[in-house]
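Hey all, sorry for the wall of text incoming. These are the four entities for the joint prediction.
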Amino acid sequence: MTLKIAIAGLGRIGQIHLENLLQLKEVQVVGATDPIQASLKFAESRGVKSYDSFDSLLDESGCEAVVICSPTDTHADYTIRAAEKGKHIFCEKPLDLSLDKVNEVIAVIERSQTKLMLGFNRRFDKEFMSVKEQVLNDAIGDLHIVRITSRDPKAPPASYIAHSGGIFLDMSIHDFDMARFIVGKEVVQVYAQGAVRIDPEIGAAGDLDTAVIQLTFSDQTIAVIDNSRQAVYGYDQRIEAFGSSGMIRAENRTTDRHELFTAKGVHSALPEYFFLERYAEAYKTELKSFVKHLKQGTAISPNAYDGLASLKIGLAAKRSIEEQRPVHLDEFNS
Amino acid sequence: MTLKIAIAGLGRIGQIHLENLLQLKEVQVVGATDPIQASLKFAESRGVKSYDSFDSLLDESGCEAVVICSPTDTHADYTIRAAEKGKHIFCEKPLDLSLDKVNEVIAVIERSQTKLMLGFNRRFDKEFMSVKEQVLNDAIGDLHIVRITSRDPKAPPASYIAHSGGIFLDMSIHDFDMARFIVGKEVVQVYAQGAVRIDPEIGAAGDLDTAVIQLTFSDQTIAVIDNSRQAVYGYDQRIEAFGSSGMIRAENRTTDRHELFTAKGVHSALPEYFFLERYAEAYKTELKSFVKHLKQGTAISPNAYDGLASLKIGLAAKRSIEEQRPVHLDEFNS
Amino acid sequence: MTLKIAIAGLGRIGQIHLENLLQLKEVQVVGATDPIQASLKFAESRGVKSYDSFDSLLDESGCEAVVICSPTDTHADYTIRAAEKGKHIFCEKPLDLSLDKVNEVIAVIERSQTKLMLGFNRRFDKEFMSVKEQVLNDAIGDLHIVRITSRDPKAPPASYIAHSGGIFLDMSIHDFDMARFIVGKEVVQVYAQGAVRIDPEIGAAGDLDTAVIQLTFSDQTIAVIDNSRQAVYGYDQRIEAFGSSGMIRAENRTTDRHELFTAKGVHSALPEYFFLERYAEAYKTELKSFVKHLKQGTAISPNAYDGLASLKIGLAAKRSIEEQRPVHLDEFNS
Amino acid sequence: MTLKIAIAGLGRIGQIHLENLLQLKEVQVVGATDPIQASLKFAESRGVKSYDSFDSLLDESGCEAVVICSPTDTHADYTIRAAEKGKHIFCEKPLDLSLDKVNEVIAVIERSQTKLMLGFNRRFDKEFMSVKEQVLNDAIGDLHIVRITSRDPKAPPASYIAHSGGIFLDMSIHDFDMARFIVGKEVVQVYAQGAVRIDPEIGAAGDLDTAVIQLTFSDQTIAVIDNSRQAVYGYDQRIEAFGSSGMIRAENRTTDRHELFTAKGVHSALPEYFFLERYAEAYKTELKSFVKHLKQGTAISPNAYDGLASLKIGLAAKRSIEEQRPVHLDEFNS
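and here's what came out:
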């Protein structure tokens, strides 16, 4: 039974999703749209029909589901339009940077009976899945402390920063989702600290490039996240979960596993450079999961509620910085 | 400029090669053949036209090159037929288990001006390429000692053993090629020892399941290879090169990089299970190299001469076991 | 030129210091005191003369310096008495749990022109010295984030907890000193979170057994410390320093470095069990440093000011917990 | 019950043994001898009485056991003299380089009812003890292949080489003993290969500086040893034991466990430099074992028979090189 999927947005991540969709058995990619002509050509070179608008894609391609990887400010709108037409949705994160908008999306999704997966790709990384699996298997008992290190290899240009929503909503939000994923509980309080240490232009744009955030969960588990926009040694993505009967950690994957011994010391390889390398497999696994659950009619995760939860944590982190105090998530519940 | 490639043999490794060919840019897969109907269907499901014989594949598909992954006893014959028709050849190892036959193939190849790549896939593994690269970069100076560990996770059935050519020609031959690849010199002497420790049926079939082989190179470098048909912890594929100014080693890749700490100790993941997992990337890189060199008209490696060299080492190892003495490769030069 | 040293207190750590003093060249151990008869016998079995009071030890042994490892509540008093008699002092941490008392000790030390080393032994651990050395060598550039993990293998009994000063002054204080040592700047703000996850009796005693503390330094560097009273896999003592041009981390030393590969996974050894094992070498290096600086007349470190600084951080951490807010260290400057 | 021990020979290793003896509980060091006046002064500075000859040491010190670390050519003679006077003996390896002499020593020992421990210190290294322990615990099943890497950081001067007995009796003999220790069986055949790659003067002295030796045990287990006189990255001492249900390996201990991540790669520490560092603990454990077994009257290991077995393997390795063939140990049984 083939699932018909369309794709909106063929930028860098859209092209990756398209290639991955084409590899999936029992999936037919029935159409693509992108305002940029060159991007559409990419789809055509893969034998995928192009549509000149998101609406025509939804109406004419015959798609049952749509993968949305257009610019962030279209996510909520596209999601709502797709849901209203009964299409299932895979949407890149974030749904939106405003709570109201995300709540509106959720209301539409609930009403439409469609399903939405949110692109928190790291949940599908095999290192982190291994941590999650062992937590579920009770390998380390009750969780007490979770440490997440998440550092990018290179800071984005200040022009990007300006529209990013800030470090907490742009970068740390992946880690907020990861902390929730690993702990399996809800966050009740956030305390954040930050600094501008990498690039003064980031500071000039009103943002931070270095941050440490403490999340307190409903069961008293504490998660500590440390973020930097620039780790010169590459993409640093590690998790450590400590509990009553042990500790599990996921180390970085490296470009290779050689060890060179000379009179100067032992030299080995750096972590894979950035998310396209580190999460190449995760992007595939993510779409496989989306397709599998649609076919089986089973619950999809992460979904819009996960997006909402992480957005609140991000907003709380911003407020914590502004007001220099720990912030309860209750402040964001209406 | 698209290269037209056909494929002969769609068993396990043939299907992998076909999938990988289909991913290559500027390659058109123009046909496939296999005596088994179900295998042909696999090709058709990928949009590849099927032919009912190797000759019709060569004559009618319009192929410029052919990938041969049919059973071992067809390799030499198919290679000769393809070369005589001016087709370039990628052939799975071994070309043949007889020196005369391999020499005959080489003569045809030389006469035909076609090019042949032999499927010593491990040369394209990124761990081993990293070792080779550093040796070439003089990171460890002159090579003195090379250690290769190559152990399979599970012994094949005795029925396979009977037609395999024996451990040296079936299994160790990859390591002989790897030793030559790393050292970049020719082997002059071989000493082998072996035992039956895993499965008495392997002994009953006249073969060994455990072996240690010492290769002496023309520059006095010594390579030591240890083989086992069964390492219960998975596919163990490691190299260590020791030289005048350092040592480099390539460790196994593991299924993931978690570390679990409990009261009982630290637990981490095993090596990737077998060659399909460990060398998945290498198979792709190998075909990319084949295509690249054909398009550029540059020299292909490893080639039939590499196959000949490793075959001689394998035959010398067999003789070393039989006669319990070190054997000079000169004994195999006519 | 031999240095004459006396020792007060022959409990577990006192016996270790005594053995280490006896190994030092050009040191003469001229006397020991301890209220417990059996402990004095230990000194005598090592050929060290015993004295029946701290005063007689100072007055009659002819010591130039004294090593104080008596119970915590005697530290300040003994230090003052020794300083007033012109003896140099090595004192186990903490000097005292009250700011006033520590300030009083400092005033006496300054007046007396004696020198005091405080027993923050971890500064002399070779793993952490290696981190410090590379930070000083500018191997990682400007420091941005420091992570310290410090977990004990087993929670102390509640009876100990009651007189310990609480987790921040008893346990985390080592980490506060380590953070200051690595960063080489002063802390300006402290935010702490904690929980009772290990043992309800610790909670009943008004203390925490799990804590995460964020320290902000004068140069904006953020240090995050995570503490647990019980890591079932052993004493977990790690540091990671992240900066503008790299990251350095010190992993745990393990009981041995074997790796066992079986069908179940890879198994390796746990960290050394507790501080007596992990810091056995550090205790020796610490006393060597004390003796070396006394002989050379050079500055001793860590000293009473370091003790004061860490005490303030500990008090700030307590207040942060009580008032659930970040606390500026200014609040503790009179 | 105190054991009275004397020591003969106070060179580098003798001084280490003396210091270690002085640390042992219930041991009294009753005398020392050495032809060099300065060395005797070392003993006196430790409160140990000096004697002007080996005989006076034996006759007048009242020793029950003697530790012999005088030059190699005195070992057999001193051992015989001590045994004839009923003293137990700890003797540095080798007993002698001639089979006849070693057999003579064994005959005297047997007649005298004294006990002899031979200084194969590596058996007491905690890494290798860990391997042995797991082999005994059947953690890896039946042994199939053992790999020993043993490389010195720096070649000795040619003057040393001339009197060393050659690489097999001077250096590899430790590895022969280690192989026997791990496997717990006897060697039946030896095949050795070697080269001069480090220093032509070593070749001029008739010796090799690079060697690979294969040992076949009575149960068909194959051990492969690779030796080099010069690994520029430090003392490389590793063992790997592979068996029917797993593999265990002991990696080098390093000077510390830091990991430095920069844009150039990951840098970590080298192995401990040489035997004095690597085996510092083992020398202590070795003497503790000697004393313990003497006190308990239990069997001492390694003993003179172990020395004899390894000497035969070394002689077989030499013959294997000379005659370029595998050599059966039977050739050395009279």
